[in-house]
Amino acid sequence: MPRHFLLILAIITIFSAAVRLFRINEPARYYFDEVYHVVTARAFAQNNPAAYDPFAPPPEEGTAYDWLHPPLAKLIQASSIKVFGDKPLAWRLPSAIFGTALILATAILATVMFGKKAGLIAGLILAFENLTLVMSRITMNDIFIAFFSVCAFIFAAMYSKKQNLIWIVLTSVFLGLAIASKWTGVYALIIVFAFLFFVMLKNQKSLLPLSFLIIIPFFTYLASYGQFWLQDHKISQFIDLHKQIWWYQNRSDLAHPYGTTAVFCTPKGLDGPKSWCPWILDIKGVYFSFETYGPKNGYIYALGNPLIFWAGLIAISYLIGKLISERNGKLVLILMGYFIFWVPWIFSPRLLFLYHYLPSLPFLTIALGVLLKDIWETKFKFFTILAILIFALSFFYFYPITSGYPINPQLLEKFMWFSTWR
């Protein structure tokens, strides 16, 4: 398999891009949180300061500016609008590009840490993961934080192999980009900081470069508000904006039929499952869109590939067992990368959705890559091939309802394995 590493990786990347770009302009309207992200990206493209104002009136009926997340992802989307025009393809193209790049980055991270076999398997499995597909075809910011976080982990892993300062700098830059896309990028910073701290101790290196992991992300975050500063906003307005962001992110009075709530914090007025368990088991999806195409309907559900989700939990358990026997720091990094992006949500007061689990999925698929690589190297090699084929079949089975491809309405029930998916 590794003899044709670059060729296989290129095929995986091309496939990933193709399934993301196919009919990405449908529906030809806003859907789900595009009512916030698209209008904000458009405002950024027009250099409209209202996009940074928490009290600005809605630009259109049924929409609102998304000031409650840092601006980087929306600035990238605004660049696409400037280049390709204000149309659905331009709105969603950056997500497709970064979603494809996420698969490539995941394969690279697994390769750096566990070898080419694990890298190819992990990348291929993530290419067959449906929630990653969905979030690569919508104008939101989640795919960006996932990509930037994985890149930060790549450079941290590179530093663990060769203690060159450039890897610390690159790690810091990508951590800053992750945080500038969504505040949960701070979780990546925490894990990477701890990992590099122990790497430096083990190699008897100065701990001073760790300061880069604080300083560079801080200034990268400030720089992401470059348009805000160029519009002559004041520091006091920057502080007030972040007070509003903090207030909103800690609200506990929001409800949504497709949301879940934390174990220790239960929002008012919500009848959904009171835990994060539906995430890791893939039993609480999010209904994104419905569109009519003559006698057929197009549905978009934010659902994971259930077989990957479930097998991934076995792989995570396998890595934990492997860690106990081997005491391998690389396993710690992957396991912490998986857990850090969803365990903190257990304590969150806000309404939660399945796509908040997205940044954990690259690490879940890397765990699967390690497990299936180890199986490949035994006499049960066929099991690895069979598992990947099953994941692929599951991906294509759910592709219509995770991409909006038109189907006969009566077929929908065949996809609804759980009542909570409706």
From TrEMBL:
Domain ArnT-like N-terminal span(s) in chain numbering: 11-223
Parts of the chain that traverse the membrane: 6-22, 89-112, 118-136, 143-159, 165-198, 210-230, 299-319, 331-347, 353-373, 380-399
UniProt keyword Cytoplasm, yes or no: no
InterPro entries, per database record: ArnT-like_N, PMT-like, PMT_4TMC
Name of this protein: Polyprenol-phosphate-mannose--protein mannosyltransferase
EC number: 2.4.1.-
GO cellular component: endomembrane system; plasma membrane
Source organism phylogeny: Bacteria, Candidatus Curtissiibacteriota
Top-rank taxon: Bacteria
Pathway field: Protein modification; protein glycosylation
Function: Protein O-mannosyltransferase that catalyzes the transfer of a single mannose residue from a polyprenol phospho-mannosyl lipidic donor to the hydroxyl group of selected serine and threonine residues in acceptor proteins.
UniProt record similarity statement: Belongs to the glycosyltransferase 39 family.
GO molecular function: dolichyl-phosphate-mannose-protein mannosyltransferase activity
Domain Protein O-mannosyl-transferase C-terminal four TM residue range list: 236-421
Key words of the record: Cell membrane, Glycosyltransferase, Membrane, Transferase, Transmembrane, Transmembrane helix
Range of residues in the leader sequence: none
Membrane topology designation: Multi-pass membrane protein
Keyword field contains Zinc: no
Catalytic EC class: transferase
Cellular localisation: Cell membrane; Endomembrane system
